[in-house]
Every structure is written in C-alpha cells, then in structure tokens.
Amino acid sequence: MNIEKVTRDLAAIAPGGVHPCAPMRAYTSFQIGGPADILLLPGDAEQARQAVRYLRAQQLPYIVMGNGTNLLVADAGYHGVVIHMHRAFSRITCSGTLCRAQAGVMMSKLARQTQGQGLSGLEFAAGIPGTLGGAVAMNAGAYGGQISDVVCAIHALDAAGMPVVWQGDALTFGYRKSPVKEGCVVLEVEMRLRRDDPQEIAARIADFQMRRAAKQPLQYPSAGSVFKRPKGHFAGALIEQAGLKGTRIGGAEVSEKHAGFIINRGGATARDVRDLIAHIQRVVLEQSGVSLQCEVRMLGDFDEE
C-alpha cells in the first residue's frame, strides 16, 4: 500500500477523518496494539460508502471496528485501513416502541436513554462497553439477553459499499453470529422495545451493573470474555477447574476474579495475550476434553517483528 497516496485519496472523501500510523492501543479496550497504516473516521454514511467503494476498487485491506472491545491488534500493527465507526454515528431516535440508533452509539448510552423513555429490552446491554454496530455484528449478549432479541432491521453497507437492509427472515442471528459479514459497515439499527416503568427498568439495570462489578475485573484493561461458551459448559468454570486462575505470561494474566477474562496487568503485548490464550486452550483440552474457541478477534501478523 502506498500510504501517502491512500491518505490523500481518503482525505478527499473524509476531510479531517484520516489518521496515518494510528496507534491501535489507543483504540482498543486491551490497550494493546501497534499502528494501523491508516485509521479512518468517516463523518457520515456517504463518506463511509465512498471509502468502502474506494478501498474495494483499489483492492486494499480494511476492517471495520466500533469501540475496540473485542479486538486484539498485533504488536506490529495492521497493514491496512481501519474504518472506525465513532461518535459521528451516535444519533438515537424513538417513536412509540420503535427505536432507531446509529452504529457508533455506545450500548451503555443506548440502554440509559431508552430507560429514560420507559422502553425496556436493553437492560442487559447497559454494562456492555462496545458500540451498537459491534454488538449487532457479533450478536452481543449478557445476563440472558442478546441484541437479536430486539433488532428488527439493520441498515448497512455491504462489502462492495452498496446499501443493504437486513430484516425479517434475513436477520440470521445465532450465538455470536449475525448477518453482518466481513467488510460490511453497520450504519443504523431499528429495535422494537417494550413499554415499562422507567424506575423498574432502572432497577434492573442497577442489578446487572452490581453483578457485573462484583464478578468482572473492570479495573484492568481486557476484551471481556475471551472464549465462546462451549456447549454444555461455561468457559470460565473450565479454566478455573484447570487451575489456571492467576496464570501469567508477560503482562497478560488470567483474572483471579473471573477466569474467563484475560487482563492486561501492565505492559502486556499482543503476543503475551495470544500465547496465554493458546496455553489456556491446550490445558483445558488436556484436562476436560473441551476445545475452547476464542471470541476475541485478532488483527495483524503476530509473528512479525
């Protein structure tokens, strides 16, 4: 990639939104990661559309990210363009029980704003630290709820930069799966919520928040739950039973508070985290026969020096 040329071309599409050699540790919840060749912050849907079409035409690698809460970027960084759907996409509008929100809205903000309007259905999401776009892309869930429970339409760009709407039978959600595929850009989501007393909704949010604070290592950088839930098991319980709580490689550690989390105790590298994930998978498989599948997305070349 000719970074200087691509930077100029993208700057013509999204003035002020193009940042070459952007340190990804500043954009991920792990606070880990080398530089992306270019970080692009589109200012609106049209800029996002033009950027995707340009990158596709030039056959340039790109990924789409929200708040970076489920992402581990290699220490050498990422040789491509990161399209960051940020606060420029943060509009929320509700009419009756139908709520429309843009992809860059934080889930915590969305849950609180709908609560204030007496709309229930997003209480589980109040503690999810990601954006709506990211939540929809991976069908995020917690405490028995998941975003697919309320989504009725997803407005997006496909990998060719063409507008697409998924609704009805096209909403093919599953466990940590959605119709949003690699290269697609979520723009806006429609959700059907339920009327309820705002104080009762707030009480449920407070209960979930209290449980989250009691069980999760929120004081350390992490990417949340590292592994998908194995059928018939809980990943955290298997890791704890394998005696891996507190296991450390470099600055990466299996949380003593919740074994399903790997935390950055300070100075952790992406390789530290990757190697710790592999160690956990190996030991758990040996002791329980269960193969843990990583939920965190890994970006870049982890073997590049």
Structure, explained:
The chain is built from seven helices and 19 strands. By secondary structure, it is an alpha+beta fold. The protein has a five-stranded antiparallel β-sheet with strand order 6-7-13-11-12. A four-stranded mixed β-sheet has the order 1-2-5-3, covered by helices on one side. Strands 15-18-17-16 form a four-stranded antiparallel β-sheet. The longest helix is centred in the last third of the chain and has 19 residues, at 270-288. The protein is globular.
Any key phrases for this structure?
305 residues; 5-stranded antiparallel β-sheet
In short:
The longest helix is centred in the last third of the chain and has 19 residues, at 270-288. The protein starts with a helix and ends in a 6-residue tail after the last strand.
